[in-house]
């Protein structure tokens, strides 16, 4: 599947979940950044969770987009964490040393 879709959920007050489906790579990284830039000023969440369960490809550009979104969230006083990465994505995040940054263990 080409492309990336982002679906928003607000399971608790102060928390927004962005569920991603597809490929998070050079071609789609801006979709994630745009979603985060739209969510932060409107919802003003204290916690933003990016659910990676549906992400089939995560390359270095996608990881860079995740780090950029983490920085955007931090600037607004919001925490950004990841959940449900597939095994390959988890391994890439571990290899880059980003597991602690995104509160994954």
Automatic annotation (TrEMBL):
Name a Pfam family for this protein: STAS_2
Q: For this UniProt entry, which residues form the secretion signal?
A: none
Recorded superkingdom: Bacteria
- Give start and end of each STAS domain: 13-105
Q: Which CDD domains match?
A: STAS_anti-anti-sigma_factors
**What Gene3D superfamilies does UniProt report for this protein, alphabetically?**
STAS domain
Q: What is this protein called?
A: STAS domain-containing protein
Q: Which organism is it from?
A: Dactylosporangium maewongense
């Amino acid at each position: 599947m080409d492309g990336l879709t982002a679906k928003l959920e607000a399971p608790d007050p102060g928390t927004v979940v962005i569920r991603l489906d597809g490929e998070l790579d050079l071609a789609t990284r801006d979709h994630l950044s745009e979603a985060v830039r739209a969510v932060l000023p409107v919802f003003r969440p204290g916690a933003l969770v990016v659910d990676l369960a549906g992400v089939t490809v995560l390359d270095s550009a996608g990881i860079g987009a995740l780090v950029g979104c983490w920085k955007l969230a931090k600037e607004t006083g919001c925490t950004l964490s990841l959940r449900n990465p597939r095994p390959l994505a988890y391994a890439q995040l571990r290899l880059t040393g980003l597991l602690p940054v995104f509160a994954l263990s």
